[in-house]
Amino acid sequence: QVQLVESGGGLVQPGGSLKLSCAASGTIDNMYAMGWHRQTPGKQRELVASMRSMTYYADSVKGRFTISRDNAKNTVYLQMNSLKPEDTAVYYCAAAPPTGSIRNPNYWGQGTQVTVSS
Hints:
Helix content is 0%, strand content 52%. It is mostly beta strands.
C-alpha cells in the first residue's frame, strides 16, 4: 500500500506562486510515476503534471508549473507560478506503479485546495 499526503495549498492572488508538496510512504520507490491532478466542481479531474522517466505538463500550465521529485524523501513537488483564477481547484497527488498509468493512478492523496483570487 502507498499513502500520499499533500500540503501547501491555500489562497493566493493572481500572478502569485504556491508550492505543493506530496509526501509518499509505504511500498513505493522511484520507479513509480508521480503526478498532480486537479478538479473543479462539475468538471472531470485532469492531469496537470507528471513525471517518471519524462515529465508531462498540460498545455494550460506549461511554462508556469514545474514538477520535481526528491527520491531520498519520497516527496514530489509542484511549483506553481503566475497563477490565474482558472487554476483554482482541488489538487490531488497521485502515484502509479511501473506497470500502471499516471492518468489512471492506483493511489490518490486526500487533495488540497488552491484558490486564486484577489
